[in-house]
């Protein structure tokens, strides 16, 4: 579905086979755990059995004495970080906190917190040695409830955390005292008091969401070798080899140029494979032994010790006039940071009202430490939480007004020129178009039928980001192009970037051979995350292709003995005077005769994407006897700007929707009173399977982003945002009860039915 006449592209919009497809389906692709180096040792980690405790003493002597053990490390072996904050590409990080998360120093802040590591001849010896390490703890009260963590007198996790207030006064009267409230954000525009006074309808509710994991299939891993020359080589599955390099170098206090990170294939990330956990530890074990060391997490470790998305507590209020105009919004948001500060509360504040044009709004957000693993990004971090709240209230307003949900959203949608509560003004965007696509869909217009059935819709937003990317491209004599890039490939970006280069050069996608290189072989490139890769690295590839065009024009001019200004590059050929023509392949064959290799580079930096929107429609059936919610039908529309490879775009939307469905209905970290996660396996942590979801229909809306030469908008984040709210709205229509807590699991839904 397009909003304007689409250019007649030859490569963009087609569906070529992905370049890494053969290696992936034949099992030849090498993931992090597949690496085997000569003399390699196996590493294992000792993790805390307590959610909150002081470390009184550590005795590693028995472990070190075990036959086959080559080294043991604790935080005492790691360099001191001091009081410093470092920018790591996706935000600034307190290095003392990052180091303490990698290996605990004086305290453990969650069950599973890493304390020590062993390198041995094999994994069995390493694991046995870990069991021989003796630690004396002073167990402290654990706080896993965000509201209790914010109370005066709550156990304080970090003695060095004070409330940093941005945009308003500190949340505490005495910000000099240690606290669990690390940051307080405040955004405001207009006059909210007057806005609510002008409203004919005001709805307000409190919402809660639980901790949820990204659910990537491949666990975290790292292999490191500290060479005798002081250079450290790391092989790992990561979303960003350059940020992994910088984190590792900073934690080891060595120059960034002394670390080389080689990204392996990655079995999913969704934001959870940006922070490092293992590389500095493997590197220090390697330094002690002089041999490479590989560490691979077990599934329990992944759940208990890596960054999930935060749980949250939210109070949100909306006001509307009787003629259907949103006039005021107010939100109070508290997100779990885990053991150390750093939840996605800031983007949550920015996204909470961003789908709509609301003139008067105020948002307060709090980053709160609790005794859980330090949170990490998870597809549009913070946006799914707030969409659950806002879109539920929008549905309630529509019900009270007696208006169509889609019509109301279209009339109040953010458009070009709308100002967000945090300040920026939207450029050309497609929020209205995504809602209209749902409104016009056969799904939305079809009868629902049957008892205990409901239909719900909801919208979602994510900024998307630009950041920095680098590529190099080399023309081969046979008319193909070798493309080297720094963006790790999670969802097929090798192909989406190659397609943009091919479109610009007028060749086929199959004539481009892409390679994801290590950090020594390509220029700096930010993480594969934030829906930036096809956008930003695509821009870099287009720039490289344009440079290749110019070089080939000069080669053709040389052959025709004319000025370069007399030659143009059109549809994959150099065209000269008298309609002389040389194809890309013909020019490539003459490179050695016209000056040698043609190599081009492209970089992207500071491009500002316009953001992306999506709207979902879902039909459910609720079993009144068990509370089980069955998804009957699901349709997702999304503004993708320009669909480079439609199959990949559809796959991203479907995958994000499935994750959102799991978040909505089943997924949660379940903690007991002592702060122990009781379901850290895929047997007990309930993710959706093919039996839980129907085919997810997709509608690709294309409102080109003017910040990209082909109009690309990132697509990976938005589809996880609408599902919880859409499902909650559908459940309400089915049983007449609004559920304000996630997940909407059978026990919770049944309780709501019984309390009706």
Q: What does this protein structure show overall?
A:
This protein is 27% helix and 24% strand. The protein has 756 residues and is α+β, with helices and mostly antiparallel strands. Among the domains are: 21-28 and 466-604, Aldehyde Oxidoreductase, domain 4; 32-141 and 232-290, Aldehyde oxidase/xanthine dehydrogenase, a/b hammerhead (Aldehyde Oxidoreductase, domain 3, Alpha-Beta Complex); 425-456 and 612-755, Aldehyde Oxidoreductase, domain 4 (2-Layer Sandwich), CATH 3.30.365.10. The protein has a 7-stranded mixed β-sheet with strand order 3-7-1-15-12-13-14, sandwiched between helices.
The CATH superfamily name of the domain at 425-456 and 612-755 is Aldehyde oxidase/xanthine dehydrogenase, molybdopterin binding domain
* CATH class assignment of the domain at 425-456 and 612-755: Alpha Beta
Q: Residue-averaged pLDDT, rounded?
A: 96
How can the largest sheet be summarized? 7 strands, mixed
Assign a percent range to the helix content. 25-40%
What would the principal axes of the Cα set say about the shape?
A: globular
User: Count the helices. How many?
Assistant: 20
Q: Supply the CATH architecture of the domain at 425-456 and 612-755.
A: 2-Layer Sandwich
Strand residue percentage: 15-25%
Helix/strand/pairing class, anyone?
alpha+beta
CATH names the topology of the domain at 425-456 and 612-755 as Aldehyde Oxidoreductase, domain 4
Poorly predicted regions are: none
First and last CA, distance: 42 Å
Task: Give the strand line-up of the largest sheet.
Answer: 3-7-1-15-12-13-14
Cα radius of gyration in angstroms: 27 Å
């Amino acid at each position: 579905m397009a909003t304007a006449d689409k250019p007649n592209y030859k490569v963009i919009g087609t569906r070529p086979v992905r370049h890494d497809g053969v290696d992936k389906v034949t099992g030849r692709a090498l993931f992090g755990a597949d690496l085997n180096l000569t003399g390699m040792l196996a590493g294992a980690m000792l993790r805390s059995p307590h959610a909150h405790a002081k470390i009184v003493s550590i005795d590693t002597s028995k472990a070190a004495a075990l036959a086959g053990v080559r080294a043991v490390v604790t935080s005492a072996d790691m360099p001191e970080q001091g009081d410093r904050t470092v920018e790591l590409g996706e935000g600034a990080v307190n290095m003392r906190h990052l180091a303490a998360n990698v290996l605990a120093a004086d305290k453990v802040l969650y069950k599973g917190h890493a304390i020590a590591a062993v390198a041995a001849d094999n994994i069995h010896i390493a694991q046995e040695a870990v069991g021989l390490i003796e630690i004396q703890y002073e167990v402290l009260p654990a706080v896993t409830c965000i509201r209790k963590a914010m109370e005066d007198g709550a156990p304080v996790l970090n003695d060095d955390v004070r409330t940093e207030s941005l945009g308003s006064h500190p949340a505490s009267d005495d910000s000099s005292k240690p606290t669990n409230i690390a940051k307080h954000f405040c955004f405001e525009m207009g006059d909210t008091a007057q806005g609510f006074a002008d409203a004919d309808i005001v709805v307000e509710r409190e919402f809660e969401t639980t901790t949820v994991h990204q659910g990537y299939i491949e666990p975290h891993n790292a292999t490191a070798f500290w060479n005798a020359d002081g250079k450290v080589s790391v092989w790992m599955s990561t979303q960003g080899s350059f940020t992994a390099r910088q984190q590792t170098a900073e934690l080891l206090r060595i120059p960034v140029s002394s670390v080389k990170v080689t990204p392996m294939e990655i079995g999913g990330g969704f934001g959870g494979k940006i922070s490092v956990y293992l590389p500095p530890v493997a590197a220090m074990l390697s330094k002690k032994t002089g041999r490479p060391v590989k560490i691979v997490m077990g599934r329990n470790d992944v759940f208990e010790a890596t960054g999930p998305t935060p749980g949250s507590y939210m109070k949100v209020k909306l006001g509307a006039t009787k003629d259907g105009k949103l006039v005021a919004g107010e939100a109070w948001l508290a997100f779990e940071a885990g053991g150390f500060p750093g939840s996605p509360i800031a983007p949550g504040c920015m996204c909470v009202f961003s789908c709509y044009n609301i003139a008067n709004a105020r948002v307060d957000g709090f980053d709160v430490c609790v005794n859980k693993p330090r949170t990490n990004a998870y597809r549009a971090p913070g946006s799914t939480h707030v969409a659950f709240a806002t879109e539920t209230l929008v549905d309630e307003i529509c019900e009270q007004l007696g208006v169509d949900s889609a019509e109301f959203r279209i009339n109040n949608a953010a458009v070009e020129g709308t100002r967000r509560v945090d300040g920026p003004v939207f450029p050309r965007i497609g929020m209205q178009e995504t809602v209209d696509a749902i409104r016009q869909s056969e799904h939305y217009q079809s009868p629902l039928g049957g008892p205990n059935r409901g239909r719900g819709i909801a919208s979602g937003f994510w900024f998307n980001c630009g950041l920095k990317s680098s590529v190099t491209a080399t023309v081969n004599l046979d008319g193909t192009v070798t493309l080297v890039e720094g963006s790790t490939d999670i969802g097929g970006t090798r192909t989406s970037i190659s397609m943009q280069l091919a479109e610009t050069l007028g060749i086929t996608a199959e004539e481009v051979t892409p390679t994801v290189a290590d950090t020594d072989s390509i220029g700096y490139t930010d993480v594969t995350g934030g829906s930036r890769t096809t956008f930003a690295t695509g821009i870099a590839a287009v720039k490289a292709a344009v440079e290749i065009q110019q070089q080939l024009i000069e080669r053709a001019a040389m052959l025709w003995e004319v000025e370069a200004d007399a030659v143009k590059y059109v549809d994959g050929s150099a065209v000269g005077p008298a309609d002389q023509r040389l194809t890309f392949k013909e020019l490539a064959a003459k490179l050695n005769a016209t000056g040698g290799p043609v190599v081009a580079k492209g970089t992207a930096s500071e491009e500002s994407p316009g953001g992306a929107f999506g709207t979902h429609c879902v039909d459910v059936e609720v079993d009144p006897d068990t509370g089980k919610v069955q998804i009957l039908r699901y349709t997702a529309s999304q503004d993708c700007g320009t669909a480079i490879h439609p199959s990949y775009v559809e796959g991203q939307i479907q995958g994000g929707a499935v994750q959102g469905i799991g978040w909505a209905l089943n997924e949660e970290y379940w903690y007991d009173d002592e702060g122990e996660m009781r379901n850290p396996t895929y047997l007990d942590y309930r993710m959706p399977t093919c039996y839980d979801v129907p085919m997810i229909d997709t509608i690709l809306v294309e409102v080109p982003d003017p910040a990209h030469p082909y109009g690309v908008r990132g697509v990976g984040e938005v589809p996880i945002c609408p599902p919880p709210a859409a499902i909650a709205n559908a459940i309400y229509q089915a049983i007449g009860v609004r559920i304000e807590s996630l997940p909407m699991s059978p026990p919770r839904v049944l309780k709501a039915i019984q309390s009706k």
